[in-house]
Specification:
The complex is a heterodimer of chains A (241) and B (593). Chain A is α+β, with helices and mostly antiparallel strands. Chain A has six helices and nine strands, in the order ββαβββααβαβββαα. Chain A has a five-stranded mixed sheet with strand order 2-1-5-3-4, covered by helices on one side. In chain A, strands 6-9 form a two-stranded antiparallel ribbon. Chain B is of the alpha/beta class and 593 residues long. In chain B, the strands form three sheets. Chain B has a six-stranded mixed sheet. In chain B, strand 7, helix 12 and strand 8 form a beta-alpha-beta unit. The longest helix of chain B has 21 residues. Classes of the chains: A alpha+beta (241), B alpha/beta (593). Chains A and B meet through helix 2 and strand 7 of A and helix 3, helix 4, helix 17, helix 18 and helix 19 of B.
């Protein structure tokens, strides 16, 4: 073996090379191996809140997006035990919010829905919490539908780190944790959000939508209608939706 | 109104790091943190408004709308419940004709619940506008109701109402310490930084807050971390229900704890310390501020301690605002920085990237007291008692069905039976060791030993006799975790609430066997995938109770395997309200077909 060979870890029996500092999920995706996730985004520092990327690392569960890869790690991802944990987490999210796929503009482009299909989630399993979350339609160009928010904080991170605006933040705690906007009125119209902001393009579900674009792409021809997420997620970066 | 705010902001030097402290003062002044106030604070501190709103929305003691001018919060720990808290609560609700969580129409009073206030040895307890009142009785409730009607400010109420008593029932090496303030610092200075580190390491001292991490390893990692600035944080956010030992240590041995912080500062080379006191202990604020001032006057804090040039260390008091999760060291640091108390991702650990991303040691109150003793008496003395892996002694907060609740200090390795005998427990059914996040032991397990080798504990010891229904106990703990989950990660945020709902159904006799199965499924998921210790342990009391007290669950199960998860009659309530009907015809038959 040459000295230049990158270090590797073992993912479901495959050798995965990584660069020092990369987390398990980052290295896996870069090498073309899909591990399900919701709150991770290649452009941002991983923060590990959705827990859907949980793997078994050397015998213990770990969050793969935030855990640095180490030479010789043994990682199990696509195994029944881990798939069951992930299925349960997706069911938690469907139970927590109001997710009605058939009437959602994001259906077919939604990461939550796509990961649900990937994991074989057929029901929410638990009694839905049916929270009362009024939508914010105050902005002329943007619809904010809190019912679908999964609290991944991607818009929060994009708005503060990329857009330098802090339009979005989280308040409350526990099950009352919720997305808020940067205005005393609490209305999106009173923030300085621009439809061209990065925060507009990172929502993995249908919580932040451009107005007047509904169903421009017909159902059936959308990203995950044509290819399962396990293929889409590992495409080279530029091709990602 | 803004003039008042400016005074508060000026008092805190317009430091955004002090946001939680600023908000505590705003609450005390206005009774709420209104949207306009949030805008003003954000502008004054140059923070995004949404961030300030997020902080205000995180801590249980903050409110965005006015609560009653007298805001009563009953401690909702299971020991308060067992001591009759619900009946006393009903009395005061009746007196003011309000419901739980409501404000009276005249804005005079509101009554709510809060997590364990750390007065389990003298419950039931409550907080009135942040002031703690213990040993509630019907007579005291009557007196409090009269005082509220009279309208005089809480700080003018009779002093005896606020008395917190001490029950130091068994003293060992820590509680019987007679060291003079500064003695431990002198000893550490004689040993030098390296010598002190070596001594702490050799003592096998482990963290007393529950984690059991070797203190010497933590200190050494911090000392070795690069950078000129280091911090020592004393974790006095004693939030685990059933725990009140730090309250007593800070009441009777504050100097020993502060000596321990200063010893740590010398050992790792820190210049600044914080004492993070839980907001439920307001009665300790003035005495601690006085102790800090006294130590500065005695050259035990401040520049050139004991005349040693270059040995500068001072301690700042920070007070929490009702968030159990801030007992987790990285969440505590976030709170110290004026943010929402969300545990950070680790690595990196606080020893290298703590307060302001600088090397920081966070130690429990009791750990620091033990470190001070080790500095004086040495590692060998410390290891004389305890077990191989758990050296020294431990303070246990004993409460519940016992004759003599209070603090009991024993060498590690003491049996549960010994503690039960000493505190006068009779007819014991179960003991919750280490609080809800710890271990539930049955009467058949009382020969087990309290030490890391057998039953680890952060110090809570709640006793339940045979008259108690263990399903009620588990339900109380489920409510606690749902209330205290920070909401960062999916499993804990959703799981703790689902558990609370399922336990509520079971407790009302409306649960099904499927609920029992689902409880275990949710508890396992939280344990496997949660972000921090709160979530990974939140399922423990449920799993323990299911395993050890299954009859308590089965007893309340209807015979059916599946029950409708919603109540048809309850679903008609909005229709009844809209039509103004409440007659028999507007209700569905209760009978299950």
């Amino acid at each position: 073996m040459s000295d230049e060979a990158p270090p590797t870890f073992l993912l479901d029996g495959h050798d995965v090379p990584f660069e020092p500092g990369q987390t398990i999920l980052q290295a896996a995706l870069a090498a073309g191996h899909y591990v399900p996730y919701l709150c991770f985004h290649r452009e941002f520092k991983p923060h590990g809140s959705c827990k859907v990327c949980t793997v078994k690392l050397n015998g213990r569960t770990a969050t793969s997006c935030t855990t640095p890869a180490h030479e010789g790690d043994e990682v199990l991802s696509n195994v029944p035990e881990i798939r069951e944990l992930r299925r349960n987490l997706i069911q938690f999210l469907f139970t927590e919010g109001n997710h009605f796929c058939p009437s959602c503009e994001q259906s077919g482009n939604c990461t939550l829905q796509a990961v649900g299909y990937e994991l074989g989630v057929t029901t929410g399993h638990y009694n839905p919490l049916f929270p009362n979350r009024p939508v914010d339609a105050s902005h002329p160009d943007v619809l904010l539908d809190f019912n679908r928010c999964i609290l991944c904080e991607l818009c929060v991170r994009a708005s503060s780190l990329v857009d330098q605006k802090s339009v979005f933040a989280l308040s409350g705690r526990g099950i009352t944790k919720h997305l808020i906007v940067n205005a005393e009125s609490g209305r999106l119209a009173d923030t300085n959000l621009d439809p061209a902001d990065t925060a507009m393009s990172v929502c993995p579900v249908g919580a932040i939508l451009h107005k007047r674009r509904g169903f421009r792409t017909p159902i059936g021809q959308r990203t995950y209608d044509e290819h399962p997420i396990r293929e889409v997620a590992v495409r080279p970066h530029e091709e990602k939706p | 109104m803004h003039g008042d705010l400016s005074a508060i902001l000026a008092h805190h030097r317009y430091e955004s790091l002090r946001l939680v402290q600023i908000m505590r003062d705003v609450m005390a002044l206005h009774g709420c943190i209104a949207p306009a106030t949030i805008t003003h604070l954000a502008e004054a501190l140059n923070l995004p408004r949404a961030q300030v709103e997020g902080v205000a929305g995180f801590y249980a003691f903050f409110a965005s709308e006015p609560r009653g001018r007298f805001r009563i919060l009953f401690s909702d720990n299971v020991t308060d419940e067992m001591a009759g808290s619900a009946e006393l609560r009903a009395r005061i609700l009746d007196a003011f004709r309000i419901g739980l969580g409501e404000v009276s129409r005249d804005g005079l009073v509101s009554v709510g619940l809060t997590s364990c206030t750390g007065l389990c040895d003298q419950g039931p307890a409550m907080l009135v506008n942040g002031h703690a009142i213990a040993r509630l009785t019907p007579a005291r409730i009557g007196a409090i109701s009269s005082l509220i009607r009279g309208g005089s400010p809480v700080d003018q109420w009779p002093e005896n109402l606020f008395a917190i008593v001490s029950h130091l029932e068994r003293k060992d090496r820590v509680l019987s310490s007679t060291l003079a303030p500064g003695e431990a610092i002198d000893a550490a200075m004689t040993r030098g930084a390296a010598g002190t580190l070596a001594e702490i390491r050799a003592s096998n001292l482990r963290g007393r807050g529950g984690g059991g991490f070797p203190t010497g390893t933590k200190w050494e990692a911090c000392a070795r971390a690069p950078g000129p600035e280091r911090f020592i944080v004393c974790n006095a956010d004693e939030g685990e229900p059933g725990t009140f030992k730090d309250r007593e240590l800070l009441t009777h041995h504050a100097d020993l704890v502060l000596d321990g912080m200063t010893v740590a500062a010398l050992a790792v080379g820190a210049q600044k310390g914080f004492l993070y006191l839980r907001g439920e202990y307001p009665f300790l604020i003035a005495p601690l501020e006085a102790a800090l001032a006294d130590r500065r006057a005695k050259n035990l804090l401040g520049p050139a301690i004991r005349g040693a040039v270059g040995f500068d260390f001072d301690v700042e008091l920070h007070v929490g605002a009702g968030a159990y999760v801030c007992g987790e060291e990285s969440a505590l640091i976030e709170s110290l920085e004026g943010k929402r108390g969300i545990p950070r991702n680790r690595p990196p650990f606080p020893v290298t990237h703590g307060y302001l991303q600088k090397p920081t040691v966070v130690n429990n109150v009791e750990t620091l007291a033990a470190a001070a003793l080790i500095a004086v008496h040495g590692a060998a003395w410390f290891r004389e008692v305890g077990t191989t892996k758990s050296a020294g002694t431990k303070l246990h907060s004993v409460s519940g069905d016992v004759a003599r609740p209070g603090i009991y200090e024993y060498p590690f390795g003491v049996s549960v039976r010994q503690v039960l005998d000493d505190c006068g427990a009779r007819d014991t059914q179960a003991v919750q060791v280490g609080g809800p996040s710890g271990t539930l032991l049955t009467a058949g397990e009382i020969d087990r030993r309290l030490a890391i080798e057998d039953v680890p504990t952060a110090g809570a010891f709640m006793v339940f006799d045979r008259t108690r229904d263990m399903l009620d106990v588990a339900f109380n703990f489920a409510r606690f975790f749902a209330h205290e989950s920070c909401g960062f990660c999916t499993p804990c945020r959703v799981g703790t609430t689902l558990v609370r709902h399922m336990m509520a159904r079971l407790s009302e006799g409306k649960g099904s066997r499927r609920d029992v199965k689902d409880l275990a499924r949710v508890a396992r998921l939280m344990k496997a995938t949660s972000h921090c210790g709160l979530g990974t342990t939140a399922g423990n009391p449920i799993l323990d109770a299911l395993e050890k007290f299954q009859p308590a669950f089965v007893r309340r199960l209807p015979s059916l395997d599946v029950l409708p998860s919603f109540d048809l009659d309850e679903a008609l309530a909005p229709a009844r309200e809209a039509t103004g009907r409440d007659d028999a015809g507007a209700h569905l038959d209760e009978e299950v077909p």
